[in-house]
Specification:
The protein is α+β, with helices and mostly antiparallel strands and 353 residues long. Helix content is 31%, strand content 24%. The strands form five sheets. Strands 6-7-8-9 form a four-stranded mixed sheet, with helices on both faces. Strands 10-11-12-13 form a four-stranded antiparallel sheet. Strand 4 (30-34) and strand 5 (42-45) form a beta hairpin. Helix 8 (268-282) crosses helix 9 (288-301). The longest helix has 17 residues, at 314-330. It starts with a strand and ends in a 10-residue tail after the last strand. The model has no long low-confidence stretch (mean pLDDT 90).
């Protein structure tokens, strides 16, 4: 930690001396001042001391990064370190006294379980305080994956769904933004270097233009995967077998190259095939309630994710359903009617794959 108590005042570790007794602002136990050549000055609890605020074993990256973040976000208002919030038993790495609401900045350099991220985020939400998670070097080295997105991704104006990284060496914010998946489940997005808070607030709007799908290649790859007993495709194929269909024979009308938020697991194409197969098997009338149920069932079968710490999958599923229904209405397979939709004709499943 960077701040400790001395005679009811907070002292920055950079200004502390060894001959004084300092205490933790959270638990009020005695803490030790550490001053070395590799790590900037910081305080730490004595061994075996239990403190609800954590903050032990800080790395040089974490100590230095907190000071850099305080400077970066200072245009929002005065910043301070390690604001203790006793009502939720948390301590913010950096506190920004922004108007009209303050903001908590969490600089995460070490692994943290999703339930811990969720609990800390919920704590700030309980106080009506927005929290910004910024990730350190070990996270920046990872390939984009659901574990990162689930814990730390959030929607921001002009950045879309994004992840924020703080580069201590470069003293710069890096944003992985407009995170999406293509129809086959591959993660997509851009990375931008953001040198100032003003540039961060300005954002960088982007439009993704997906490439057309090569359906013959998709069918071929899925055929090989099924022959090899690919576990991810097995539950999908079992559902289609029950309807007397085969996955690689899916109707072309169910295909789409749309990009989606990254919650559809192995991709929205598989999701559309499942929902479409159930829809046409259940006709001639289909209700919104049925479609909602099929949408969530298909999401589970394609390895999708219903929840994340800072965003919900619900809008993405609703948009995907809307896109599917729009395509089927436009091509004459469905007609909107009172209370839902009417099946006008059955799509043809390919027979020569």
């Amino acid at each position: 930690m960077l701040m400790a108590e001395y005679q009811h005042h907070l002292i920055d570790a950079r200004n502390a001396t060894r001959q004084v007794t300092y205490r933790c602002p959270a638990c009020h136990e005695v803490v030790c001042l550490h001053r070395g050549h590799q790590v900037a000055p910081y305080f730490a609890h004595r061994p075996q001391t239990a403190c609800w605020s954590g903050g032990e074993g800080e790395t040089a990256e974490h100590v230095t990064g907190k000071r850099q973040l305080a400077l970066f976000f200072r245009p929002w208002g005065p910043t301070s370190f390690e604001r203790v919030l006793p009502t939720i038993q948390q301590r913010a790495d950096v506190w920004g006294a922004r108007t009209p609401r303050p903001v908590a900045l969490e600089f995460q350099c070490s692994p943290l379980a999703v339930d811990q991220v969720a609990a800390r985020t919920a704590g700030y939400r309980q106080l009506g305080i927005p929290v910004i998670w910024l990730l350190g070097r070990r996270y920046a080295r990872q390939r984009l994956n659901w574990r990162l997105i689930e814990r730390y991704a959030r929607w921001l104006p002009r950045w879309g769904l994004c992840l924020l990284f703080w580069d201590v060496a470069d003293q710069c914010l890096r944003v992985k933004h407009h995170l999406q998946q293509d129809a086959l489940g591959q993660y997509l997005g851009w990375v931008s270097r953001v040198p100032t808070l003003r540039a961060f607030l300005a954002g960088q709007p982007r439009t993704f233009h997906p490439r057309p799908l090569n359906l013959a290649r998709v069918r071929h790859n899925w055929s090989l995967a099924l022959l090899r007993g690919a576990a991810p495709l097995r539950p999908i194929q079992e559902q289609l077998y029950g309807l007397h269909h085969h996955l690689i024979q899916f109707p072309t009308v169910l295909a789409s190259n749309q990009a989606t938020p990254p919650i559809f697991g192995r991709g929205v194409l598989l999701w559309r095939i499942l929902v479409g197969a159930w829809l046409f098997a259940a006709g001639p009338r289909v209700t919104p309630a049925q479609l909602q149920r099929w949408g969530w069932q298909a999401l589970q079968l394609v390895g999708g994710q219903a929840t994340a710490v800072q965003f919900s999958a619900r809008p993405a599923v609703a948009l995907a359903l809307h896109a599917l229904l729009t395509d089927l209405e436009r091509t004459g397979y469905l007609r909107r009617a009172t209370g839902g939709w009417v099946v006008q004709q059955q799509p043809q499943w390919v027979t020569d794959s």
